[in-house]
Structures are given as structure tokens and as C-alpha cells.
Amino acid sequence: MLTNLEHLGLAVQDLEAATALYTTLLGEPPYKREHVASEGVDTVFFKVGGSKIELLAGTTPESAITKYLAKKGEGIHHVAFEVADIRVTMARLREQGFVLLNKEPKRGADNKLVCFVHPKSAAGVLVELCQEIG
């Protein structure tokens, strides 16, 4: 079961410029910066009420974010939902015909296990499932 809108992921070309922009827009600095080597991204997180904004910038030419930016430009990359049990949610979605981009959950940013739902099976939106680790 999806329990909460966890965050919106925004793909950006220049992480420092976007961080400054969102700090001004939201009136608060980010609470976390993180490099996720396995995904080839640097991330910055802002809290907004009970949800978050995640800025993502690719760090390698092979990064999914780098490729996304080259194809579509800056903007909303994904919507992430918190789940109580990611494996149970993944099994339920598979049974209901959703295409998952991950066979098993993987470690993501912000101390989460994550899995992505293919946009073709989610009305054109890349959906991320997130479960807090620990």
C-alpha cells in the first residue's frame, strides 16, 4: 500500500544553481546532499511540509538522469511514494500487471530502499516506491 507522497524528483543540469533557486523559492536550505555512485547522481533534498523535493543531477554520461536531461530537459523526473513493505508492494503491482524496472529493491538516496515502476504502465509517469531502511 502506498502510504504517503514521499517526494518529487526534479532533474536539473546545474545542481548548485538549482539548489540556490530552490533555497530562495522555499525559504529554507536543503537538509541533505548525497552522492549515489551506483546511479551516477548527486542529490539535494528539501523538506516541504510532510513531503520532499529531490534535485537530481547526473555525474556520468551513463547516468539515467544525464540521459533524461539530454532527451527531455529539466523538470519533473519522477514521483515517489512511501510504502510500508516494498517487497509486498512490488509483488502486488507485478500481479496487477505493472512493469517494474527493478527485480529487487535497491539502495537509493536518503536511507531508502527503492524500486521504479515503468512509465508505460503508469500513465506516462515514472513512479518510485520508497521504504525507509531500518
UniProtKB/TrEMBL annotation:
The answer on whether this UniProt entry bears the keyword S-adenosyl-L-methionine reads no
Coiled-coil stretches noted in the UniProt entry, renumbered to this chain: none
Record GO terms (molecular function): metal ion binding; methylmalonyl-CoA epimerase activity
**Which Pfam families does the record match to this protein?**
Glyoxalase_4
Q: Which residues, if any, are the signal sequence? A: none
Metal-binding among keywords: yes
Give the matching PROSITE patterns.
Answer: VOC (PS51819)
Q: What's the top EC group for this one?
A: isomerase
InterPro entries linked to this entry? Glyas_Bleomycin-R_OHBP_Dase (IPR029068), MeMalonyl-CoA_epimerase (IPR017515), MMCE/EMCE_epimerase (IPR051785), VOC_core (IPR037523)
Q: Name one GO biological process term.
A: L-methylmalonyl-CoA metabolic process
Q: Identify the domain of life.
A: Bacteria
Q: Which UniProt keywords apply?
A: Isomerase, Metal-binding
Q: Fetch the SUPFAM superfamilies from UniProt.
A: Glyoxalase/Bleomycin resistance protein/Dihydroxybiphenyl dioxygenase (SSF54593)
Known EC number(s)? 5.1.99.1
Give start and end of each VOC domain: 4-132
Concerning its family, UniProt says: Belongs to the methylmalonyl-CoA epimerase family.
> What is the protein name stated in its UniProt record?
Methylmalonyl-CoA epimerase
> Which organism is this entry from?
Hymenobacter jejuensis
Q: What is the lineage of its organism?
A: Bacteria, Pseudomonadati, Bacteroidota, Cytophagia, Cytophagales
Gene label: mce
